[in-house]
Amino acid sequence: MDKLIELEGFDEEPKFNRRLARDIAFKHIFAWQFDESKAPDIKSRLDEMAFGKKDRAYIENAVKGVTENLAEIDKIISEKTVNWKKERLSKLCLAGIRLGLYEILYDDTIPYSVSVNEIVELLKRYDTHESAKYANGILGGFDDKDSENDSRN
Fold it and tell me: Which residues are within 8 A (CB) of 66 and not within 5 positions of it... i.e. 6 or more apart?
């Protein structure tokens, strides 16, 4: 009775869950948009949650990637939003499109169609179906060769 029970896999790194990591990154980008003058404080918030190294790296890279490449990302959004100003988009939709463009332009580990589909699903869950359709139109019609500064080429 004095023996400790060994649990198999208890010490192992949690399984990578990109969908959950994308959801968390999306929420951080959304919250950051209310005060873009401050760098998002995600490290301390991630310390409160049990994420594996891959999840944590994705979240940190995505949030940092969006904030550091905001000028290029927003320029593309402005070019793609015909007769519609970026400021008229809901903050949820804007966060989704920004994250999607970050993934398309800067993260070559994620297939293009996966980025588009996952952002559409996030927006269906947190915003409106119209917002999801709008983001799909922007991201789905985006050719990553449109950008001369594309780091994936």
Answer: 29, 73, 98, 99, 102
